[in-house]
Amino acid sequence: VQLQASGGGLVQAGGSLRLSCAASGRTFSSYALGWFRQAPGKEREFVAVVSWSGGSTYYADSVKGRFTISRDNAKNTVYLQMNSLKPEDTAVYYCAADTESLWDFTYWGQGTQVTVSS
Fold it and tell me: Which end of the chain is more exposed for a tag (fewer CB within 10 A), N or C?
């Protein structure tokens, strides 16, 4: 599968952005999908994951209540709605996919930069 992330940009603190990740290749519904991020000088960290059916979602504590992950299997796209953004959310955001695991991803897209100004 190939993943293409988009939707990043510059936003003020308290604002919102919606990231999208379009997938091509094998049947989209066979993949669990996740979002990760990496800030400058830091390791990549988990943000959110959605199960194959979309029935289960999990979030990092740092984004819980502010971010929402969803998927549209008809459009082969996974989304990350980010509200109440904080400067510490500034990072490159990556989408990922895997057919077998919710937590160990095989396929990765290129990143999209999110910058939150204070």
Answer: C
pLDDT in tens, 69-84: 999 999 999 999 999 9
Q: Check residue 97 and give its pLDDT.
A: 95
Mapping DSSP onto H, E and C, the string for the chain reads CEEEEECCEEEECCCCEEEEEEEECCCHHHCEEEEEEECCCCCCEEEEEECCCCCCEEECCCCCCCEEEEEECCCCEEEEEECCCCHHHCEEEEEEEECCCCCCCCEECCCEEEEEEC
Distance CA 85, CA 62 (A): 11
